[in-house]
Protein backbone atom coordinates (compact mmCIF):
# COMPACT_ATOMS: atom_id res chain seq x y z
CA UNK A 1 0.00 0.00 0.00
CA UNK A 2 1.23 3.49 -0.80
CA UNK A 3 2.66 5.82 1.81
CA UNK A 4 -0.02 6.84 4.31
CA UNK A 5 1.81 9.81 5.82
CA UNK A 6 0.23 13.20 5.22
CA UNK A 7 1.72 15.22 2.34
CA UNK A 8 2.57 18.10 4.68
CA UNK A 9 4.47 15.79 7.02
CA UNK A 10 6.50 14.51 4.06
CA UNK A 11 7.16 18.11 2.93
CA UNK A 12 8.27 19.03 6.45
CA UNK A 13 10.62 16.03 6.49
CA UNK A 14 12.13 17.10 3.16
CA UNK A 15 12.57 20.64 4.52
CA UNK A 16 14.26 19.27 7.65
CA UNK A 17 16.70 17.28 5.50
CA UNK A 18 17.25 20.02 2.92
CA UNK A 19 16.40 18.16 -0.29
CA UNK A 20 14.35 15.27 -1.60
CA UNK A 21 16.11 12.08 -2.70
CA UNK A 22 15.55 8.31 -2.79
CA UNK A 23 17.60 7.82 0.39
CA UNK A 24 15.38 10.21 2.33
CA UNK A 25 12.31 8.43 0.94
CA UNK A 26 13.63 5.10 2.22
CA UNK A 27 13.90 6.66 5.68
CA UNK A 28 10.40 8.11 5.39
CA UNK A 29 9.02 4.66 4.61
CA UNK A 30 11.07 3.00 7.41
CA UNK A 31 9.75 5.58 9.88
CA UNK A 32 6.22 5.04 8.57
CA UNK A 33 6.66 1.33 9.26
CA UNK A 34 7.76 2.07 12.85
CA UNK A 35 4.87 4.47 13.32
CA UNK A 36 2.40 1.82 12.12
CA UNK A 37 3.82 -1.22 13.90
CA UNK A 38 4.96 0.38 17.18
CA UNK A 39 3.23 3.79 17.36
CA UNK A 40 6.83 4.91 17.88
CA UNK A 41 6.18 8.63 17.37
CA UNK A 42 3.92 8.57 20.46
CA UNK A 43 6.17 6.33 22.60
CA UNK A 44 7.82 7.91 25.63
CA UNK A 45 10.93 5.76 25.18
CA UNK A 46 11.43 4.93 21.49
CA UNK A 47 14.73 3.59 20.13
CA UNK A 48 16.17 3.31 16.64
CA UNK A 49 19.43 1.60 15.78
CA UNK A 50 20.46 2.53 12.26
CA UNK A 51 23.08 0.53 10.42
CA UNK A 52 23.71 3.30 7.90
CA UNK A 53 24.41 7.03 7.86
CA UNK A 54 22.43 7.72 4.67
CA UNK A 55 19.95 10.54 4.13
CA UNK A 56 17.09 8.40 5.44
CA UNK A 57 18.33 8.73 9.00
CA UNK A 58 17.18 12.37 8.97
CA UNK A 59 13.65 11.19 8.13
CA UNK A 60 13.78 8.66 10.95
CA UNK A 61 14.91 11.35 13.38
CA UNK A 62 12.23 13.79 12.25
CA UNK A 63 9.35 11.30 12.10
CA UNK A 64 10.05 9.14 15.17
CA UNK A 65 11.51 11.59 17.68
CA UNK A 66 14.67 9.48 18.04
CA UNK A 67 17.85 11.57 18.05
CA UNK A 68 21.56 11.22 18.71
CA UNK A 69 21.39 13.89 21.40
CA UNK A 70 18.77 11.99 23.40
CA UNK A 71 20.73 8.78 23.03
CA UNK A 72 17.85 6.88 21.46
CA UNK A 73 19.14 7.04 17.88
CA UNK A 74 22.17 4.79 17.69
CA UNK A 75 24.44 4.54 14.64
CA UNK A 76 26.21 1.27 13.99
CA UNK A 77 28.33 1.79 10.89
CA UNK A 78 27.66 -1.51 9.14
CA UNK A 79 26.85 0.03 5.74
CA UNK A 80 23.47 -1.69 5.58
CA UNK A 81 20.10 -0.10 4.85
CA UNK A 82 18.75 -1.65 8.04
CA UNK A 83 16.91 -0.12 10.97
CA UNK A 84 15.93 -1.64 14.29
CA UNK A 85 13.04 0.08 16.04
CA UNK A 86 12.03 -0.62 19.61
CA UNK A 87 9.34 0.79 21.88
CA UNK A 88 10.51 0.41 25.49
CA UNK A 89 6.96 1.22 26.69
CA UNK A 90 5.50 -1.90 25.06
CA UNK A 91 8.72 -3.97 24.96
CA UNK A 92 8.17 -4.64 21.25
CA UNK A 93 10.38 -4.08 18.28
CA UNK A 94 11.54 -5.18 14.87
CA UNK A 95 14.46 -4.95 12.45
CA UNK A 96 13.70 -3.80 8.91
CA UNK A 97 16.16 -4.37 6.08
CA UNK A 98 15.55 -2.40 2.90
CA UNK A 99 15.35 -4.32 -0.37
CA UNK A 100 18.13 -2.43 -2.19
CA UNK A 101 17.03 -3.69 -5.60
CA UNK A 102 13.58 -2.16 -5.29
CA UNK A 103 12.81 0.55 -7.86
CA UNK A 104 16.24 0.50 -9.48
CA UNK A 105 14.93 -0.15 -13.00
CA UNK A 106 16.78 2.48 -14.95
CA UNK A 107 15.38 4.08 -18.05
CA UNK A 108 18.36 5.27 -20.10
CA UNK A 109 16.13 7.74 -21.93
CA UNK A 110 15.51 9.68 -18.70
CA UNK A 111 17.88 12.20 -17.17
CA UNK A 112 19.51 11.30 -13.85
CA UNK A 113 17.17 13.71 -12.04
CA UNK A 114 14.11 12.20 -13.73
CA UNK A 115 15.33 8.71 -12.75
CA UNK A 116 15.63 9.87 -9.11
CA UNK A 117 12.13 11.35 -9.18
CA UNK A 118 10.75 8.14 -10.67
CA UNK A 119 12.44 6.07 -7.95
CA UNK A 120 10.99 8.37 -5.25
CA UNK A 121 7.51 7.92 -6.73
CA UNK A 122 7.95 4.13 -6.82
CA UNK A 123 9.17 4.06 -3.22
CA UNK A 124 6.20 6.13 -2.06
CA UNK A 125 3.72 3.98 -4.03
CA UNK A 126 5.09 0.62 -2.86
CA UNK A 127 3.76 -1.65 -0.17
CA UNK A 128 5.98 -1.60 2.92
CA UNK A 129 6.34 -5.39 2.80
CA UNK A 130 7.83 -5.09 -0.70
CA UNK A 131 10.34 -2.51 0.52
CA UNK A 132 11.53 -4.16 3.73
CA UNK A 133 12.28 -7.56 5.14
CA UNK A 134 10.91 -7.38 8.68
CA UNK A 135 12.09 -9.50 11.59
CA UNK A 136 10.59 -9.17 15.10
CA UNK A 137 12.94 -8.69 18.04
CA UNK A 138 12.11 -9.51 21.63
CA UNK A 139 14.88 -7.74 23.53
CA UNK A 140 15.96 -4.10 23.53
CA UNK A 141 18.63 -3.48 20.87
CA UNK A 142 20.64 -1.24 23.23
CA UNK A 143 20.69 -0.21 26.88
CA UNK A 144 19.23 3.18 27.82
CA UNK A 145 21.66 6.09 27.65
CA UNK A 146 23.55 6.88 30.85
CA UNK A 147 25.08 10.11 32.04
CA UNK A 148 28.73 9.50 32.82
CA UNK A 149 31.46 11.52 34.49
CA UNK A 150 33.72 13.71 32.41
CA UNK A 151 37.44 13.50 33.03
CA UNK A 152 40.11 15.97 31.98
CA UNK A 153 42.54 14.72 29.34
CA UNK A 154 46.06 14.78 30.77
CA UNK A 155 47.37 16.20 27.50
CA UNK A 156 44.90 18.78 26.16
CA UNK A 157 42.88 19.34 29.34
CA UNK A 158 39.52 18.99 27.58
CA UNK A 159 36.76 17.21 29.49
CA UNK A 160 35.92 13.84 27.96
CA UNK A 161 33.22 11.30 28.76
CA UNK A 162 34.68 8.66 31.07
CA UNK A 163 33.84 5.80 28.69
CA UNK A 164 35.87 7.47 25.91
CA UNK A 165 39.05 8.06 27.93
CA UNK A 166 42.07 5.87 27.17
CA UNK A 167 44.82 5.11 29.67
CA UNK A 168 48.37 5.36 28.34
CA UNK A 169 51.58 5.45 30.34
CA UNK A 170 49.62 6.32 33.50
CA UNK A 171 47.82 9.25 31.84
CA UNK A 172 44.14 9.67 31.00
CA UNK A 173 43.89 10.70 27.36
CA UNK A 174 41.01 11.65 25.09
CA UNK A 175 40.85 9.68 21.84
CA UNK A 176 42.55 12.32 19.65
CA UNK A 177 45.46 12.69 22.10
CA UNK A 178 45.68 8.91 22.51
CA UNK A 179 45.88 8.56 18.74
CA UNK A 180 48.88 10.90 18.66
CA UNK A 181 50.91 8.77 21.08
CA UNK A 182 49.76 5.23 20.33
CA UNK A 183 51.73 3.80 17.40
CA UNK A 184 49.11 1.27 16.30
CA UNK A 185 46.43 3.83 15.46
Please describe what this structure looks like.
This protein has 185 residues and is an alpha+beta fold. The chain has helices at residues 7-17, 22-38, 56-64, 112-125, 128-131, 175-181; strands spanning 46-50, 73-75, 82-87, 92-98, 132-137, 150-152, 159-161, 166-168, 171-173. The model has no long low-confidence stretch (mean pLDDT 91).
In short:
This protein is α+β, with helices and mostly antiparallel strands and 185 residues long. The protein has 6 helices and 9 strands; from the N terminus they run ααβαβββααβββββα.
**H-E string:** HHEHEEEHHEEEEEH
How many helices? The count is 6
Query: What's the end-to-end separation, in Å?
Result: 49 Å
Largest sheet: 5 strands, mixed
What is the beta-strand fraction?
A: 15-25%
CATH architecture of the largest domain: 2-Layer Sandwich
Look at the helices and sheets and give the structural class. alpha+beta
Do you know the CATH topology of the largest domain? 60s Ribosomal Protein L30, Chain: A
**Looking at the structure, what is the overall shape?**
globular
**Text of the CATH class of the largest domain:** Alpha Beta
* Quantity of strands, as a count: 9
The total tally of domains equals 2
Strand order of the largest sheet: 2-1-3-4-5
Low-confidence runs: none
Amino acid sequence: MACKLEDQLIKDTIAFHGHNCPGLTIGIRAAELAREKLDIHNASTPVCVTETDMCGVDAIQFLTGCSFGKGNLIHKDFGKSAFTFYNRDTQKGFRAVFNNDFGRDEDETLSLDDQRQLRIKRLLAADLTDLFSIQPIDTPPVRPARIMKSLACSNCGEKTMESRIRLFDGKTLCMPCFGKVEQKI
